Please model this.
Amino acid sequence: MQKLKNFNWKNFFLQGVLPFAMAIAAAFIARYQLELSDGVTPDFLALQWPLYAPLNALTAFCLTLVLFAILGKWSRATGISGALFTVIALINYYTRDLHGSALMPQDILNLGTAAEVMGSYTLQITATVRTIVLWYLPVLALAFVQAKLVKGMPKRASWRARGVRVLGSAVGVFCILFFVVFKTFDMMHLCMGGYVALIIGSLLSKNWGKYWDAVATGMSSKIMNELALILLIVGMFGKLMTRGGVAQGFVWLGDKIGLSGGGFVAFTFIATCVIATATGTSIGTMFTAFPILYPSGLLLGADPVFLAGAILSGAIFGDNVGPISDTTIASASTQEYTNKPGVADVAGVVGSRMKYALVAAAAATVCFALFGGSGSDINAAEAEAILAQYSNPKGLIMLIPVAILLIVAFIKRNIYVACTWGLISGTIIGLVSGILVPSDIMGMQDGTLGGFLIDGVNNMIGTVGYLYAIAGIIGILSASGLLQQVIDGLVHSKLNRSVVGTEVIISVGLMVSSICLGSANGPAIIMWGPIANDLGKSKGLHPYRRANLMDGFGSTLPAVIPVTSAFIFIALSCIQGLMDTYSFVQEVSPVSLAGASLHCWFLFVVLAVAVITGWGRKYEGPNGEPVKALPAQTK
Model:
């Protein structure tokens, strides 16, 4: 325990963080070598920033991660991957020089023919070739420094460390492949990646039986099972709201109000906030709002960047405060009481975090209204035609079940009861108003069983499966003792000596976890939640406060980093899809979009002020109630 109390953060940075950063730097060099071998112009290279160059570097980094998982040394992984990329770049250069096209995977099958041709071909050592080779020298220098930084560490890692290394590398590779290479945002794919990572990790376990027992223990935790149950139930309610046409109701409202320019951008933000809060899905809100509100807003004089930022911001707002959002439920379910059994209730968490979200949303609304107009010509007739196509005033009626769910949740403090009454009331209101027909609930559609009940469960299967995989990984970390070592190290760190320091650790740790998982905040909260739980308990922080810091900060910087945020990628993909349909839709810069996602930035400022000043900070009272001051006996 004394060793944990004296956790050396300097060595952690120099021997862990810095070699990792150097490996990423080497990946940028590899990316540049490959671009040189393709004969691209300096102007083209400049256009690769700030989005595509980092994405290509992350793709190259996958090879370094694989080598690190196998070899266990960043220096070896960096040096070998750099050598491989240098050779590949040279082969690509000469392939282009020989037959005018870049190296393709199928060319590997024609190595015999290539060898015969090369016999009569003289390789020219051009300036480009020399440049490609010389760029390997900085890679060697980085590998040398990496080796020096870890000098003195054990030459052979323990089986526990190897397993964690492989698991982490596998998860990292899958996240990069899915979000960067394949550009897929389906949680089912991440679910598959999580379980493949667990299988790969088992190969390095000394005792396979104990390894899978640890996985099963993590998956069978009460918190994880309750979270899965809640998500499956709220998934049905979310699909009920989607079928009920809440989005179409707001389209009708916006059409009737007759807003344009910045006013329409502000309205779009508010509308997406309500839609995301009602449906509990940020990604679903974006896929719903962009096709309807984005082209209409452009025709009504809205600035394209701020309009896209308003939709993304509204989706994030609902993800943060929605009572049926997976991040809200995960943040509440992972934070336990100290003075009474159980975890934080969803209604209490939502109520206590609303002040932060509303202050940030109010500031964002004003800015969207002031700066959201582009000053371009307004084509009201064409905009009205698009709005009318998706307009249905009855959709606003379906906000009644949302209100019922919220009221029951605050009264009963039980999300199961609230969702039950939300489903019942929503189904009745939908049928009576004519918004729904019986087959919308459950029925045969195109030869298969459909309806919002089936769709709701299917929509959550990938998320639940991925969260179970994360829970399995946590089970391994717990059984190996590494999780407790991290917790003890953080609890006894210098930064954790003050309540402000504790909240900084909770907030920054969650943001780093979310960034590593491509801004998938639900899984990030599940991963970081146990650590935040113990850290918060050590200072008597109320579970509401801990949950709010995690979910709140996860909705800030991780959501707007252009090269890692799935939300940025999804927004750009929605805009690119609209470019094929509407000639007036133009491409948006990812950096500009990140800057225009105003709610995320304002929320970061609001929460940072709350941590520094203590605004909204509550401690756990003798019976679990929120109190302003820490009880004397627990100070």
The beta strands are 443-445, 448-450, 619-620, 626-627. Residues 1-6 have pLDDT under 50 and may be disordered. The chain has 31 helices and four strands.
